[in-house]
Amino acid sequence: MLNQATPYALPPEWFDGAVLFCEEAGGMGAYVWSYLQVLRQAGILDRISGMVVGIPDGIEGIDGPDSPDASPTLREIVLDVLSDRDIPVLGNVEFGHAGPNLPMPVGIRVALDAQQRFLALLEPAVRPLTASAWAPGGCAERGQ
């Protein structure tokens, strides 16, 4: 996320219509807020069509629903940063560092319904190797 605040940032148009997956392990709740603010200031959050947030894992300063402390929850942080954006946000999804480590493929179409807690991959995450990959000089021969 912090890459977007550097000269090495991805072009903002790459995020047009994307569903952003984010999760954090360790650190502080304030870091999560700051990371999301970087994306907001870079215009990324204005371009995405949805967000999927992983289960917080060992983040200090993030309160659970039963905590008497006045610290914000992860949900409150995400919704604060998104402010007036009306996009689906699906939270506490088991991917990344917490729960089963489910890989999230990059660049494929997904269906997201936060109200129904539904996320579906609409195309294969991997493609079969073509015959040319096994041809002399192909990536299989080079060990790639």
Essential attributes:
144 residues; alpha/beta; Glucose Oxidase, domain 1; three-stranded parallel sheet; 2 helices; 5 strands; 15% strand
Can you put this structure into words, describing what you see?
There is one protein chain. The chain is α/β, with parallel strands linked by helices. The protein has a single domain, classed as LD-carboxypeptidase A C-terminal domain-like (Glucose Oxidase, domain 1, 3-Layer(bba) Sandwich), CATH 3.50.30. Helix 2 links the parallel strand 2 and strand 3. The model has no long low-confidence stretch (mean pLDDT 84).
Number of domains: 1
Mean pLDDT: 84
Number of helical segments with 4 or more residues: 2
Radius of gyration: 18 Å
Taken as a percent bin, the fraction of beta residues is: 15-25%
First CA to last CA: what distance? 28 Å
Oligomeric organization of the protein chains: single chain
Using the alpha-carbon principal axes, give the shape.
globular
How do the strands of the widest beta sheet line up side by side?
1-2-3
- The unreliable regions are none
What is the helix/strand order?
EHEHEEE
Helix % is 10-25%
Secondary structure class reads alpha/beta
The CATH fourth-level homologous superfamily: LD-carboxypeptidase A C-terminal domain-like
Largest sheet: 3 strands, parallel
The number of strands is 5
CATH class placement: Alpha Beta
